[in-house]
Specification:
Layout: H1 2-31, H2 36-48, H3 50-61, H4 72-86, H5 100-109, E1 113-122, H6 125-138, E2 142-147, H7 154-168, E3 172-178, H8 187-195, E4 199-203, H9 211-214, E5 223-226, E6 230-234, H10 241-244, E7 250-252, E8 255-259, H11 263-278, E9 298-305, H12 313-324, E10 328-332, E11 336-337, H13 340-351, E12 355-361, H14 367-374, H15 377-382, E13 386-390, E14 393-395, E15 399-402, E16 406-410, E17 414-415, H16 416-421, E18 424-429, H17 432-446, E19 449-451, H18 454-457, H19 462-472
Parallel strand pairs: 2-3, 3-4, 7-14, 10-12, 11-17, 12-13
Antiparallel strand pairs: 1-8, 1-9, 2-5, 5-6, 6-8, 9-18, 10-15, 13-19, 15-16, 16-18
Helix pairs in contact: 1-2, 2-3, 4-11, 5-12, 6-7, 12-13, 14-19
EC number: 2.7.8.-
Active site: 220, 222, 227, 396, 398, 403
Membrane topology: Multi-pass membrane protein
Length: 478
């Protein structure tokens, strides 16, 4: 009898302690003064799924001051130093007055705008890989690569071997990959590059006991800089699926090669991230070579966003662009979990008569995020936003174009994670030719899409509607 009594007392004590931990965690979430939508999402999870919710919060929700992870002072110091090295070179000043978005990014992000850039867009991984390998073969001084995913597969090994060959020629090479994005890659893959003289670093390593503080802040950027005058930016990682696609279709993405002074912005982004993990303050003028001749007519600005600063730079820029649109605003994104501000800006633009089109994949690589994305479509269509579902495979492109004058390509998805937690980078363009090129790419993809109508959408099963609505509660946390 005593044993049973002690067992009951012990069980009750464990339950009380656990309940106290859950309640305390809920109060911590409330007192953290984060986004109310996100706060309610955490409270709902902790209330209805206490075990799962507590584990999720321990691993993904702790909001320790982000400055402890990455020094804002160190970031600012590095961002200014390389800029000082090339600021005397001609950043675009004349004609920028009317480009309020460029002025906004310069003020909150320190991003400079450069004219005379050449741009070349790639909409499939094979063409991009060919161009990347060609530029690597031509490298003479240095190569900097930064990717969220750098897989140990045929494509990853092909690029690795090309880098090793250039290292043997005396080219200085630095590679930065995200630790979570490359979780499944055996470290021996990167060690082979290290043994050949290539500097390799992972961004914010996730290892116990520091696992909980870093998993939420991932480096989602995809950048390459070669000799300081050619660079790549966009949504493509280094993996075979970007070339061969998936079992159910192609992997449709967009990357841009930039030649000209805008590469300075790519270089600043890379060296900033390199400093964050290596604490090496690289500011030599050799990484910002003087470019005197125009490589094209594109006006470009490289904008970074991160979870450290006071502002959500790219998210606020998108909102500003939507508010200033006059005729049309086209968007491609693999995921659609917008913040309340972005959702309202999209609806407002559509209600004002702007031709707002949103292109998403009909089938995505992540079931949970895709279901949450679908939950927003009904209210978008009610406001007049046209929804296109891409049917040829997985649409992974992150692109926007508006009014034949503004366009952007980069790593930023239309979701909470990209806007608030990830380190992202986008190239913004302010010239007509670039906008028309991306507009034509969008319209060509539109031919492979299903135009969704409220009538068709409302016919989906009640089961799907319930699943989408329930999963949407997790949207701020995905």
């Amino acid at each position: 009898m005593d044993a049973m009594l002690w067992s009951t007392v012990f069980s009750t004590l464990i339950y009380v302690i656990y309940l106290a931990v859950v309640i305390t965690t809920i109060f911590i979430v409330i007192l953290d003064n984060r986004n109310p939508v996100k706060t309610m999402a955490w409270i709902l999870i902790l209330f209805f799924l206490p075990v799962v919710g507590l584990l999720f919060y321990i691993f993904f929700g702790k909001s320790r001051r982000k400055e402890r992870l990455i020094s804002r002072k160190g970031y600012a110091r590095l961002t200014k130093r390389p800029m000082e090295a090339y600021q005397s070179q001609a950043a675009l000043k004349e004609g920028i007055e009317g480009k309020r978005l460029a002025i906004f990014f310069n003020k909150v992000n320190g991003a400079l705008t450069f004219g005379g850039n050449g741009v070349e867009f790639y909409t499939n991984g094979y063409a991009m890989l060919q161009s990347l390998l060609r530029e690597i073969a031509h490298a003479r001084h240095f190569i900097h690569l930064e990717y969220y995913i750098f897989e140990d597969d045929p494509v990853g090994r092909l690029l690795r071997d090309a880098l090793i060959d250039k290292a043997h020629e005396g080219v200085k090479i630095r590679v930065l990959y995200d630790d979570v994005g490359c979780w499944k890659v055996d470290h021996a893959f990167y060690e082979q590059m290290l043994c050949e003289g290539i500097e390799v670093q992972s961004f914010l390593k996730v290892r116990f006991p520091q696992f909980t503080s870093k998993i939420n802040y991932r480096n989602h950027r995809k950048l390459t800089i070669i000799d300081g005058n050619v660079g790549f930016i966009g949504g493509m990682n280094i993996a075979e699926r970007y070339v061969k696609g998936v079992s159910w279709g192609i992997w449709r993405d967009t990357q841009v090669k930039i030649s000209g002074k805008a590469v300075y912005g790519l270089q600043t982004a890379f060296l900033t991230d390199w400093y964050a993990v290596d604490r090496s303050l690289i500011t030599s003028a050799e990484y910002f070579p003087k470019i005197t001749e125009a490589k094209g007519e594109a006006i470009a600005q490289i904008v970074m966003s991160d979870p450290i600063g006071e502002w959500r730079d790219i998210m606020q820029g998108i909102m500003m662009a939507l508010c200033r649109a006059q005729r049309y605003f086209y968007i491609q994104s693999p995921y659609f979990l917008p913040t309340e501000q972005v959702k309202t800006a999209l609806q407002t633009a559509a209600l004002a008569g702007i031709d707002v089109r949103l292109m998403l994949p009909k089938r995505a690589d992540t079931w949970l995020i895709h279901k949450a994305s679908l939950s927003y479509l009904d209210e978008m269509m009610q406001a007049g936003v046209k929804i296109y579902l891409y049917r040829k495979g997985f649409l992974h492109a992150k692109m926007m174009v508006s009014d034949d004058e503004l366009s952007t390509v980069g790593s930023t998805n239309m979701d909470f994670r990209s806007f608030e937690h990830n380190f992202e980078a986008n190239a913004f363009f302010y010239d007509k030719n670039t906008a028309l090129t991306l507009k034509n790419i969008f319209l060509e993809d539109q031919k492979s899409c299903l135009l969704l109508s409220p009538k068709i959408w409302n016919k989906r099963s009640w089961k799907n509607k319930v699943i989408e609505s329930v999963v949407r509660l997790l949207a701020p946390l995905l």
